[in-house]
Amino acid sequence: MIHFQCDYAEGAHPAILKKMEETNFEQTVGYGADHHCEAAREKIRRACGRQDVDVHFLVGGTQANFTVISAILRPHQGAVAAVSGHINIHETGAVEATGHKVLALPSEDGKITGQQVRDYYNVHWGDETHEHMVQPGMVYISHPTENGTLYSKAELTALKEACTECGLPLFLDGARLGYGLTSPKTDVTLADITELTDIFYIGGTKVGALFGEAVVIVNPALKKDFRYLIKQHGGMLAKGRLLGIQFEVLFEDGLYYEIARQADVQAMRLRDAFEKKGYALRYDAYANQQFPIIPNEHLDKLREKYSFSFWEAMDDSCSAVRFCTSWATTEAAIDALIADIEAL
Amino acid sequence: MIHFQCDYAEGAHPAILKKMEETNFEQTVGYGADHHCEAAREKIRRACGRQDVDVHFLVGGTQANFTVISAILRPHQGAVAAVSGHINIHETGAVEATGHKVLALPSEDGKITGQQVRDYYNVHWGDETHEHMVQPGMVYISHPTENGTLYSKAELTALKEACTECGLPLFLDGARLGYGLTSPKTDVTLADITELTDIFYIGGTKVGALFGEAVVIVNPALKKDFRYLIKQHGGMLAKGRLLGIQFEVLFEDGLYYEIARQADVQAMRLRDAFEKKGYALRYDAYANQQFPIIPNEHLDKLREKYSFSFWEAMDDSCSAVRFCTSWATTEAAIDALIADIEAL
Amino acid sequence: MIHFQCDYAEGAHPAILKKMEETNFEQTVGYGADHHCEAAREKIRRACGRQDVDVHFLVGGTQANFTVISAILRPHQGAVAAVSGHINIHETGAVEATGHKVLALPSEDGKITGQQVRDYYNVHWGDETHEHMVQPGMVYISHPTENGTLYSKAELTALKEACTECGLPLFLDGARLGYGLTSPKTDVTLADITELTDIFYIGGTKVGALFGEAVVIVNPALKKDFRYLIKQHGGMLAKGRLLGIQFEVLFEDGLYYEIARQADVQAMRLRDAFEKKGYALRYDAYANQQFPIIPNEHLDKLREKYSFSFWEAMDDSCSAVRFCTSWATTEAAIDALIADIEAL
Amino acid sequence: MIHFQCDYAEGAHPAILKKMEETNFEQTVGYGADHHCEAAREKIRRACGRQDVDVHFLVGGTQANFTVISAILRPHQGAVAAVSGHINIHETGAVEATGHKVLALPSEDGKITGQQVRDYYNVHWGDETHEHMVQPGMVYISHPTENGTLYSKAELTALKEACTECGLPLFLDGARLGYGLTSPKTDVTLADITELTDIFYIGGTKVGALFGEAVVIVNPALKKDFRYLIKQHGGMLAKGRLLGIQFEVLFEDGLYYEIARQADVQAMRLRDAFEKKGYALRYDAYANQQFPIIPNEHLDKLREKYSFSFWEAMDDSCSAVRFCTSWATTEAAIDALIADIEAL
User: Fold this and answer.
1) Choosing a second label site near C119 at 20 to 30 A (CA), which of A269, B232, B259, D104?
2) Which spans in chain B are helix H?
3) What sign does the CA torsion over D262, D266, D271, D273 have?
């Protein structure tokens, strides 16, 4: 069985394990104040092209999401997000557990637009009874989205302009950020994201680390006391250096980009194979997630050798499914899958 | 500089890193449903002497504490704990952030008694206005405590009896459980803890793992939907197998006990050296934390070569401090420290 | 200016003020333990046709909603409701502020069906990753709904059956319950509601009281410690007898029904006038709220003498608006409005 | 039986009921936007001696406390308060239910000092691990306190200075404020309180109203969006004019002061009687609550005709108890009680 079900099926890039071993008996202080974390922060600042950002390391994505959101919002405010956003669907109400409603905007492909944000804001404030409704307090997006789609630089710029007009901080969930940055179709760089958001994170868990997300706080107003929030929400790893070490390795000599690019290359091969086979694609995705619409009988056949995720029944005979590649996906695995697709 | 400041200064026991490397390219499902987690659960059940307990792996102690507590309590209930309990002091209000008050009982040495619990319960229910006060809903203890002290089997039995009488689940925070179980002065076994608590956890972070706490749910009434709570609170590691692997190694051939015992042995050597030197001990501790009361000028001298924690000023000239040993503490390090103490 | 904007524009039925004055210098205990509250509870139990229900008096509807919901749910659970439900739209995220997501079902007319509940439940539990999603923990409906519509006895029965099958308590928000019970088109009685829900409330604020909602707990499993929840959420009125007095009066000799019926009679006269004028009705409502679709120029004219609520733009020229009658609406006010409608 | 158990045993001052009746059929908008609320706000601003304060009307004290506190604090912050503070003891964890710890300072008489606040603040920020502890975010006091004691102007000034130095807003719970302002021993005026706090409330429930607390926001930084918080926490009364009407009456021609003063006069008569009888006083209280220490056999005797609150057992034979007078306490009732005390 070869797994394409998710992008966290394996451990970590071997260089990470190697450095963990080499540094294993170093004695360091805890909670992220060690020199590995400091070095990783420095590398990330350089990669972002700005020295004035704060960088914090958290363990996982759900934790990063609700920690950031609860740090930003006042109690009566909510986070505007696509209806399909991870925080709205797949985090067991973690944001609500901190007291905040997710304000869901309709979305066909996982993205939302600046105009949607502006409209939502105006409807809220235009309503005489606005105090009876949750006030929009920030905007949450992911890049790539849950549907594998990507914001263009123009779209992201428009979104940021709307957020600025409305006084809403923009938060970008980058759980799969690497795969977005190295997509063959993107024009968005890490420096762009740094300029066009107030806070975001660089995903490690799904891009070569054992675990870990690097939260980058760009907007100075959001920096205050963030470490308290991390601790309160259980995200302050005692042996924080483990996070530092991982991001040190990933941001050494562009490893993060290199391994993400390779996953995207394999995903594009897969995309071509689906298209060649005549399968429609549920979303027009150019990163490591692909969503072909495949006849159910073909799916049954593929399930004998491959794991992947059911996404949505399109009709009685066809379903959209999700295949993920990752930093660990081998060319051989994709060769095998493509051959089996062609043979269907 | 040699660190005795905490028990999480190093990485992990080498056997853990070795197994992580060996299994690195295995493809497994996520979120703790993999075969390593299953194997680790099985080993822990055996170590506890009961097959009917649920075992869940969380990343850290604060996370384990508020996840367990919020899973047990209804909104109007609080957790009874020693005033010095970790949840009351050192978790940035994580329990309160889930909506619950910590109901603090006085304690000289970090422990509370069955009689204190019974009295608190009776005062609450005896008050006509009890509905205006937080209802005691469970009892939280740690073993070893924050002060390095240990419950005897008789004390734990009395506490459990009081809890049972009052209908209060008993939760034991075992962040340093290993060091308690292998103390030369303890009569409490892992099987005893399994029998005498409703839920507890076996600490990994401080006892040889990179991170990880194994929550053991003994009381069937507390088992329902626990995985939802883990996910909601950001504790469900995507690559859950990392937790499974670590506890597989720790509970293979008694490694957990072996490394904890060695730390206790070194702590006892240190304790003897303090006593021989004539330093009083702030708490009568027989596990890996020692709290000598030392003249400030001696402390200044020791700080040149060793790190340790300031605990409390006793008077103008003396302070209580904390020295921790751990699974990684070497005999040579203790030799050096003892020699320097003797030379003061 | 005559107000039809809401059903809480006036004070209280004069009989209530009279009794408040008569009893003003009685000394009673506080917090709802007085003899007026006891008498009111007894009357409500009789009206419900069951002696074994618990009755609690709260001050307002939002408070009643989030107190009940947070009393029922565990942290990882949410309340299933129509997307247009009051808790989802008009309570500033009060339910989320207690940590729970509102799980919104689509609804055209404010009602949801048993089949919708069953489907939602099955989709949740049928999903492999259900632990990553908020678990449905109860069902919330209102009767009359926000759209003035009413459940038939058959619909309510079907809903309750689905809830029972799925193990979900059914909570009915009866902020306008009186107007529903006395509708000319309803076949649902207070006794039916008592049999077909687990918990509900009888609205006072909008039906003749100064304020107050009587929460009736039918399901014994939901009764425990409810007064703690009321206190914690700020709903335990110090001079609780004020609530008792009001419900004593309302449930004396059927006053509650009498004043609600009169409001419905005036609403039906209004409905007839709208239909006679050729205005379509946005919802098929037979209680005290009416939602005609009226040309904007007619609305401008009506606004000179009457207040009412804008609901929704139907197209460039027409809007749906809401007219409320109440226990205090006079026949003369409706006469005037009808005459002005006819004259448009 | 004559009740001295609390200060909310009766209804409201007759002038309030009269005005409610006179205005009963006025139609007004809801939620506090009506002309009665506006008039009451204006009167309160005048009484405070400042036009630039915001005034909001809430229903009860617990509600006012947790609404104000949750409006001020960020998630990782707590409210510093006397250990005996109402929020710490008698509100069923309402503050914790909004996610915040109450940071309790020791207090013998219900008051805390500026120095205590400064010390707590310095200990927090002086600790290397301060991020692991709840950050002090504001200070809560009550005046009169739970023990009937009063801050002098000098004490309040010192407290405010400490708060300003530490950047902590000062919140004064004035549930019994009237009785404090008219105490024969006070030098603190309403204008002083307005100058020396950031936010406070003027209690109505215990001082002549049916219910209601007027929150006065002095510090502009705390004003933003406060109405959202009121609504979210269930404190926005639909018929908000009921609150306006009550405070209009109370602040017309100094009625609030007049009725409070009369209660204090009766309390002082009682105090004198206790002292004359040789009873010690548990607290040195000069407002409407008195705490004599009385032999248990005398208490048994008094209980035959009077209700009062048990406070604390002093030893086997004596107990401290609490007698409250209120706006409704008659001279005759005090005459009777004094006669019975003398006769013991």
Assistant:
1) B232
2) 14-22, 35-48, 61-72, 86-89, 94-97, 114-126, 153-166, 177-181, 190-196, 226-232, 241-250, 255-277, 296-303, 331-343
3) positive
Q: Which whole-number Å values give the CA distances from B260 to A180, B130, B177, B186, B242, in the listed order? A: 45, 44, 9, 13, 21
Using DSSP's 3-state secondary structure scheme, residue D59 falls into: coil
CA distance A39 to A45: 10
Residue A319 DSSP SS3: strand
From chain B, pick out residues whose CB is under 8 angstroms from the CB of A205: 238-239
Which CA distances in Å does B318 have to B296, B300, B344, D13?
A: 5, 11, 14, 63
| Dihedral of the alpha carbons of A267, A270, A276, A282, in degrees to the nearest 10 | -70
Type and span of the H or E element at C328? none
pLDDT tens for each residue of C116-169: 999 999 999 999 899 999 999 999 999 999 999 999 999 999 999 999 999 999
Euclidean distance between the first and the last CA atom of chain B, given in angstroms as a whole number: 18
Give the tens place of pLDDT for each residue, C281-310. Answer: 999 999 999 999 999 999 999 999 999 999
The reply to whether residue D231 touches residue C92, judged by beta carbons under 8 angstroms, is yes
Chain A 268-327, residues with CB within 8 Å of chain C CB atoms:
none
What spatial distance separates the first Cα and last Cα of chain A, rounded to whole Å?
Answer: 18
pLDDT of residue C210: 98
Instruction: Report the distance separating Cα A279 and Cα A274, nearest Å.
Output: 5
The reply to whether residue D99 touches residue B97, judged by beta carbons under 8 angstroms, is yes
Element containing residue A116 per DSSP (H, E): helix A114-126
What's the maximum distance between 2 C-alpha atoms anywhere in chain D?
63
Specify whether the CB–CB gap between B288 and B326 falls below 8 A: yes
E strands, chain C, are 2-3, 54-58, 77-82, 102-105, 135-142, 170-173, 199-203, 213-217, 289-290, 293-295, 306-307, 309-313, 318-324
Nearest residue of chain C to residue B69 (CA atoms): C75
Nearest CB among D6, D62, D98 relative to C231 is that of D62
The answer to whether A71 contacts chain D (CB < 8 Å) is yes
Between β-strands B309-313 and B199-203, what pairing exists: parallel, antiparallel or unpaired? unpaired
Task: Please tell me the distance in Å from D108's CA to the nearest CA on chain C.
Answer: 26
Q: Which of D97, D102, D133 sits opposite B99 (nearest CB)?
A: D97
| H helix or E strand, kind and range, residue B199 | strand B199-203
State the amino acid at position B106 in one-letter form: P
| Whole-number percent of chain C with pLDDT over 70 | 100
Give the pairing of strands A289-290 and C318-324: unpaired
Q: How many whole angstroms separate alpha carbon B247 and alpha carbon D261?
A: 70
CB–CB of C324/C6 below 8 Å?
Answer: yes
Residue A6 contacts C, CB cutoff 8 Å: no
Q: Are A197 and A53 in contact (CB under 8 A)?
A: no
Contact of B64 with B236, CB cutoff 8 Å:
no
The answer to whether D107 and D84 are in contact (CB under 8 A) is yes
Give the pLDDT score at B22. Answer: 98
In terms of C-beta density within 10 A (0-12 exposed, 13-18 middle, 19 or more buried), how is residue D126 classed? exposed
Across the A/D interface, how many CB contacts are shorter than 8 Å?
46
Which residue reads 């003749």 in tokens? C208
- Over residues A299-305, the mean pLDDT reads 97
| Residue position matching structure tokens 């005062």 | B123
Distance CA D92, CA B131 (A): 7
Is this prediction's pTM over 0.90?
A: yes
Chain C hits for B221, Cβ within 8 Å: none
Nearest to C92 among A93, A96, A134 (CB): A134
Q: Residue D90: which of B78, B97, B132 has the nearest Cβ?
A: B132
CA distance A306 to A270: 13
The string over C233-270, giving b where at least 16 C-beta atoms fall within 10 Å of a residue's C-beta and e elsewhere, is bbbbbbbbbbbbbbbbbbbeeebbbebbbbbbbbbbeb
